[in-house]
Amino acid sequence: DHRDLHSFPTRRSSDLVVSQVIDVTTGELNSRLTPGGGVNMEGTRIRIAGDNPANGIALVNQQTNVPVQIPMTSILLNDPSKVSFIVPADLPEGDYKLHLTTQFSTNSTFLKEPRTYVLEYVLTV
């Protein structure tokens, strides 16, 4: 069973993945956001770090394409595998995609360019 190693995608150490988003108010997974409520995200290398102004969490409205930036003061936990934040209390109803942008890296230096991960699930308010 000889396999060609080049046919398998390799994960780079800089890969950034949000594996799940939990709405703390309802306990729902990858589906809902409650204005004024908390959200727990789990993933790989998701700590928000670096000095690029693009870094952070944005909720992009799927109807209007308008991003709502989550202020850094609303981010309660910012670890490599877990990030928690408060959903803005005035977030309009609609469907959103979560974008997480960071320069976090596993070594002591930040990535030169920020990377963005877009959660594949639509989150409804």
Q: Would you kindly provide a written description of the structure presented here, covering whatever features stand out?
A:
The protein is mainly beta and 125 residues long. Helices cover 0% and strands 38% of the residues. It is built from no helices and nine strands. Strands 3, 4, 7, 8 and 9 form a five-stranded antiparallel beta sheet that branches. The protein has a four-stranded antiparallel beta sheet with strand order 1-2-6-5, with no helix packed on it. Strand 3 (56-61) and strand 4 (67-70) form a beta hairpin. The relative contact order is 0.27.
Sum up the structure in keywords.
four-stranded antiparallel β-sheet; 125 residues; globular; 9 strands
Write the layout of secondary structure elements.
Blueprint: E1 17-23, E2 38-44, E3 56-61, E4 67-70, E5 75-78, E6 82-86, E7 95-102, E8 115-118, E9 123-124
Antiparallel strand pairs: 1-2, 2-6, 3-4, 3-7, 5-6, 7-8, 7-9
Radius of gyration: 16 Å
User: Separation of termini?
Assistant: 49 Å
Q: Looking at the structure, what is the overall shape?
A: globular
Strand content: 35-45%
Could you state the order of secondary-structure elements as H and E? EEEEEEEEE
Q: Average pLDDT across residues? A: 90
Structural class category? mainly beta
| Main sheet summary | 5 strands, antiparallel
Based on DSSP secondary structure assignment, what is the total number of beta strands? 9
- Runs in which pLDDT lies below 50 for 5 or more consecutive residues are 1-13
- DSSP helical segment count: 0
Helix content: under 10%
